[in-house]
Amino acid sequence: MTVRDTQAPELPRQPNLGLPILEDLPPVAGRRVLVRADLNAPLRPGKDGGLEVADDFRLRASLPTLAWLGANGAEVVVCSHLGRPKGKIEPRYDMAPIREAMAELAPGVSVADNLRFDPGEEANDPAFVRRLVDGFDYFVNDAFGACHRSHASIVGPPALMPSAAGRLLMGEVEALTRILIDPEYPFVAIVGGAKVADKLGVLRSIAERSDRVLLGGAMCFTFLRALGHDVGASHVESELIEDARSLLDRFPGIGTPRDIVALAPGGDFGIGRPATGEVELFTDDLPVGWQGLDIGPETRADFAEVIAGAATVLWNGPMGVFEDPRFAEGTRAIAEAVAACPGFTVVGGGETAASLRQFGLEGRIDHISSGGGATLEFLEKGDLPGLAALRLSNAVRQS
Ligand code: ADP
Ligand code: MG
């Protein structure tokens, strides 16, 4: 196998955090290796009425592991889920477009069928695990973005055969562990995005470890309400106002916006919808019916100054509805501040990473996490089911 445009970077042998790495496998030459990757790329209509890969970011992320295995003479089959077919064969989630793109990127690597076409994948059915690994000698997990799920292809194979963590997975674990265990201070976290409910656990965990937590996005309005502000028609999760209040009491390092860009009542915003309505900047409180959709210029300047002085930065969640240019400036300012920060910078979250790509800044971040839910769960709990399974495989072999 040859893999174009890719080098297999050598990882330092330690610390590998108890996870078996590719070098820990028995010699792979002439052996059949099953790789669980995350090839769940966005698709779009292509030629001849079919679908094609719209963004091959995830496919390219899988290449270092495939290159290492190929260079060492393994016969490689890569498996992944695609979309949510819920245990049934659905033509729109067929792997054909992924297979076509991978044939270009990693010639010689076979791509197996969509794991989620079989109900055994999500149910973690032992019979499905056995079918999956049938005929393979070794297993490699490189699907960091799926490691928070106890699905068959994630937790099953390491119990049955020598297994290792791939390069992408190790890179994720190393960067996120550095943030969790041994961050340099000042450690500044920026948390925004859609919902407090999704991020309360990670907020608690990060607030304990960091000096400052800067809040933006839809989630800041629950905190602004907890502080007694009027937030108009902004997104508030009423059942979480008490949790927000207790976090603010416990952690004086949590910072909220002091000016907000808002949309007038009746206006419209978002993706693929016409942008309508008056937009205004408010300080402190919003009038009735106005919806806060971005952080204002004073907040941007405050946050950027804090970020500039950080030795460690973790950013998850856009500061506003950056998909609408009228509400993109807050996210852009934070993206630029994080890119310019000389400290160690880590960015996680699907939309946050997409915003960096939109602004052309992704090359200036130390680590962009490929996981969404997996990244948040790892930052909250310090471990994931898929990692625990790999560690167990290592322990079994050493005993
Ligand atoms: P990530 O995928 O990076 O973890 P989330 O999924 O939590 O981020 O949230 C991203 C979404 O949050 C974006 O699509 C953005 O439009 C939306 N968003 C940001 N700020 C607001 C806001 N003030 N009101 C409503 N939606 C917002
Ligand atoms: Mg998201």
Textual characterization of the structure:
The chain has 399 residues and is α/β, with parallel strands linked by helices. The protein folds into two domains: 22-170 and 383-398, 3-Layer(aba) Sandwich (Rossmann fold), CATH 3.40.50; 185-342, Phosphoglycerate kinase, N-terminal domain (Rossmann fold). It has helices at residues 57-61, 63-71, 96-105, 119-123, 126-133, 152-155, 167-181, 196-209, 220-226, 241-250, 297-308, 329-340, 350-358, 373-381, 385-398; strands spanning 32-36, 43-45, 51-53, 75-79, 110-111, 138-141, 163-165, 187-191, 212-215, 254-255, 259-263, 279-283, 291-295, 312-316, 344-348, 367-368. The longest helix is centred in the middle third of the chain and has 15 residues, at 167-181. The model is unreliable at 1-14 (pLDDT under 50). The structure holds adenosine-5'-diphosphate (ADP) and magnesium ion. Magnesium ion binds at residues 349-351, 372.
SSE inventory with pairings:
Elements: E1 32-36, E2 43-45, E3 51-53, H1 57-61, H2 63-71, E4 75-79, H3 96-105, E5 110-111, H4 119-123, H5 126-133, E6 138-141, H6 152-155, E7 163-165, H7 167-181, E8 187-191, H8 196-209, E9 212-215, H9 220-226, H10 241-250, E10 254-255, E11 259-263, E12 279-283, E13 291-295, H11 297-308, E14 312-316, H12 329-340, E15 344-348, H13 350-358, E16 367-368, H14 373-381, H15 385-398
Parallel strand pairs: 1-4, 1-6, 4-5, 6-7, 8-9, 8-14, 9-10, 14-15, 15-16
Antiparallel strand pairs: 2-3, 11-12, 11-13
The structure holds adenosine-5'-diphosphate and magnesium ion.
Residues 349-351, 372 line the site of magnesium ion.
